[in-house]
UniProtKB/TrEMBL annotation:
GO terms for cellular component: endomembrane system; membrane. The keyword Heme does not apply. Keywords: Membrane, Signal, Transmembrane, Transmembrane helix. Its main location: membrane. It comes from the Eukaryota. It is a single-pass membrane protein; Single-pass type I membrane protein. This is Serine-threonine/tyrosine-protein kinase catalytic domain-containing protein. It is found in: Endomembrane system; Membrane.
Amino acid sequence: MADFSYWKAPVEKAKTCDDDLEQLDWPYKDLESNIYNFGILLLEIISGKLPYSEEQGFLVNW
């Protein structure tokens, strides 16, 4: 129901133990997509509809 890609980077970082400073900015790389995904999740909760149905198509294409 929710997008857990937000937690994927810290888990991979913990497994690899790299000290690369470029990987420290991971929460800010996909901020727009996380906001979009959260909005879709709220729309699903409020409307009570699935993100996709055969009759109506994708929820975002209302």
